[in-house]
Amino acid sequence: MTPSNVKATLSFSDNSPSIELPIYKGTMGPDVIDIRKLYGQTGKFTYDPGFMSTASCNSAITYIDGDKGELLYRGYSIYELAQNADFIETCYVLLRGDLPKKQQKQEFANIIAKHTMVPEQMQFFFQGFRHDAHPMAILTAAVGALSAFYHDSPNTNDPYHRDVSAIRIIAKLPTLVSMIYKHSVSQPFVYPRNDLSYSANFMRMMFANPCEEYWIRDVLVRALDRILILHADHEQNASTSTVRLAGSSGANPFACIAAGIACLWGPAHGGANEASLNMLEEIGSPNKIREFIKQVKNKNSGVKLMGFGHRVYKNYDPRAKLMRETCHEVLGELGLCDDPLFKLAIELEKIALEDEYFVSRKLYPNVDFYSGIVQRALGIPTSMFTCIFAMARTVGWIAQWSEMISEPEQKIGRPRQLFIGHALRATK
Ligand code: ACO
User: Fold this and answer.
1) Ligand 1 centroid distance, CA of 372 (Å)
2) Annotated catalytic sites, by residue?
3) What are phi and psi of 263, to 5 degrees?
4) C-alpha separations of 309 from 221, 226, 342, 356 in Å
5) How many Å apart are CA 256 and CA 245, to the nearest integer?
6) Which of 223, 308, 366, 403 could be bridged to 317 by S-S, CB 3.0 to 4.6 A?
7) Comparing C-alpha atoms, which of 60, 7, 64, 62 is closest to residue 31?
8) Residue of 289, 318, 321 whose CA lies nearest to 305
9) Interval 363-382: pLDDT, tens
10) Which residues are within 8 A (CB) of 282 and not within 5 positions of it... i.e. 6 or more apart?
11) Does the C-beta of 297 come closer than 6 Å to ligand 1?
């Protein structure tokens, strides 16, 4: 953090003494006013539910310019990464800071591959769940359960231990997610194959069975890889902030990631990809779009255009553009160019982007608007969509968790409150 020459002065209308607050500059983005000493100096807190104006940390991992619609991982544009890198390289970028050289990538991919199996006891854990349990409920529990296994790397203050945990979590998520799917369709679990790429291995664990191998199609594997790249990190969103807050107490990393998964599940966050596809199916036909938009604009209806809008993007989400492109590629490969849901989504986007309600509020498609269509084309059932998001975001969560712990000034997260309940009163 670079101190700015400019300082902020906070003054009060009741003649309390004013105070001066330092300002820091980041590499890009808005400056921040440092209010850490505010309470000590004035006896007052700041009030910012929803963190509309609060930077909860400093970070060197991901940067979003919401007005330009730009997303950078460690300074690399998401467009370039999506076109020139694969998910393993993206993980390396987020965790280690730079794109890997060829040998570094090979070594990193090998380490990840060595950790793809989950403890054998985990298969019994799944049997406690009904087959129709929501996949995100099982994923939250399964990742939390992993915290019971790894006693060789418990010291979160040791960078090596943190790295071991990071590798394990990234490597095991595809195995767990595919086990959840297999459980839901009453098929045997398929063990990982470490000679395959991260995404190809996942597709095989999902769709092979003991009677039939899965035919790996490069375009489909590449599409999944792109979904993973686009969802890998997104600075201090709700689930990432959850992981950081959980980790700030020194909690076990698997438990912290489980907390992030729980947060991601909500329909206002990662659950939007599932909700967005369900919405398209409910609309059903282009001639129902206008009626649906009318409902969305009616604040009493409680209906939202899922996959639209974002706290930070006030322009087209760059990930949505890439996802729409991937839709074309995948549907083309599968001979589904006339997919009615895709056509409906394009029409819905067009109508919304011309509508004053969406224009004036700067509401654009976000990544979830198109990702469901791609996932459905890959054969992934709707209820599993958010698990795929979790699998991708795990690397971002763990990179952010590790960054937080290595921060010398790291403290347990503990927000304050404006108390509006009863003052002290007697029981009788
Ligand atoms: N449909 C209809 N109206 C919307 C939508 C939407 N999808 N999104 C925002 N608005 C409206 C709000 O009602 C509000 O209107 P008002 O000013 O008249 O009150 C205005 O736009 C501003 O929206 P907020 O809700 O204040 O924006 P916020 O930053 O709090 O919320 C959020 C962002 C949660 C993403 C919201 O846009 C939303 O619910 N979108 C639908 C769910 C979704 O797609 N989530 C995925 C987010 S991306 C991700 O997690 C990967």
Assistant:
1) 18
2) 310, 368
3) -70, -40
4) 28, 21, 19, 14
5) 8
6) 366
7) 7
8) 289
9) 999 998 999 999 999 999 99
10) none
11) no
